[in-house]
Design a protein that fits this description.
The chain is of the alpha+beta class and 159 residues long. It has a single domain, classed as Hotdog Thioesterase (Thiol Ester Dehydrase, Chain A, Roll), CATH 3.10.129. The chain contains six helices and six strands, in the order αββαααααββββ. Strands 1, 2, 3, 4, 5 and 6 form a six-stranded antiparallel sheet that branches. Strand 4 and strand 5 form a beta hairpin. The protein is elongated and about 60 Å long. The protein starts with a helix and ends with a strand. 25% of the residues are buried. The model has no long low-confidence stretch (mean pLDDT 96).
């Protein structure tokens, strides 16, 4: 275990259970949805054909659930950072470790605004790494029910 990891672990533990951040809003554009469809080769009409999508209960196209999930990284990046950045001292790299749970609770219709709200729910020391579990909620502006709820695991590796 690195000394940096041990010091950081104490800092991370001190904020375990606390709300972390809420990102700025971003618009889910049709162009973004189409680009994701191209990359994943998922061209189901509900995502890419506005005319056919009008006949669905949503009345318009919707973002892929996996697109919303993949935007967690971006939404997290545009979130305000903690005032005390000392927990990152000595970081060599960070990696995604996976998800405990992912639910696509509400579709994101085209041109909706979404934002991320996160809470740090668990911190574990794993050798020279710290594993965090963060409860992530992607909200849709004007909607009570969120688009996505996920428990995201990351590993922060210290030198």
């Amino acid at each position: 275990m690195s000394e940096n990891a041990q010091k950081a672990f104490e800092i991370w533990k001190s904020v375990e259970g606390q709300e972390e951040t809420t990102s700025d809003w971003m618009v889910m554009t049709q162009d973004r949805i189409n680009q994701f469809a191209d990359v994943t080769e998922d061209h189901q009409f509900i995502h890419v054909d506005p005319e056919k999508a009008k006949a669905t209960p949503f009345g318009t196209t919707i973002a892929h659930g996996f697109l919303t999930l993949s935007l967690l990284t971006h939404l997290d990046a545009i979130s305000p950072k903690p005032s005390d950045m000392s927990r990152y001292a000595g970081v060599a790299m960070g990696v995604n470790y996976g998800f405990e749970k992912v639910r696509f609770a509400n579709p994101v219709t085209v041109n909706s605004k979404i934002r991320l709200h996160s809470t740090l729910t668990k911190v574990e020391l794993k050798g020279s790494a710290i594993q965090t579990t963060r409860h992530m909620t992607v909200e849709i502006e004007g909607q009570e029910k969120p688009a996505l709820v996920a428990d995201w695991l990351t590993r922060i590796i210290y030198g």
